Amino acid sequence: MIDRLEPLVLRHTFRVPLPTAPSGEGTTAPVGEGSAAPAGEDATASAGQGAVAARQFDAALLTVGFKLSTELTERLSALPEETVVRIAGRTLRTVRELVGDHVRHNAYFINFPKNVPSTEDFWMKCLLDALGDEKTRDGTLAQMWTGVVNLLSLPTYGRYQHTYAELLAAQDELIAAAGDRITVLHPGGDLADELTALYLALAGSTTPLGEEHQSDLRALAERCAEGPQPEAIPVRENRALVNQARLKVGSDLLLDTVTDVLRLACALSDGDVSLLAPTRFRSPSRPVRRALLAALDSVVAASPAKLADVAVHREAWKRLGERLHPHEYPHRPHAAEVFAVARGERKAPSFDGRVEELLAADDLLGAVALLRSAPGKLFRALDRLLRTARTQEERDAVVAAAEQVAPEVSGRVVLSVREHLHNRARETGELRVFVNGRGRAWVTDDERTAVGPVERDRLIAVLDDETRRRLPSPERLLVDPEVLDVALPLSGKATAAGLGVLPRGSLSAVEGELLRFFVYWKETERRTDFDLSALMLNADYSTNTWLSYTSLTEVEGEHSGDITEAPDGASEFINLRLGAVRGAFVVPQVNIFSGEGFEEVEESFFGFMLREGEQRGRPFEPRTVRMKSELRGAGRVALPLVFLRGDDGGWRAKWLHLYLKGSPSANRVEENRVTVATLLRGIVEREQLTVRHLVGLMTGEGTTVTLWDGETVPDGPVTYIGLRRPDELPEGSLIVTPENLRDLIPA
Question: What predicted TM-score, i.e. pTM, was given to this entire model?
Answer without folding.
Answer: 0.91
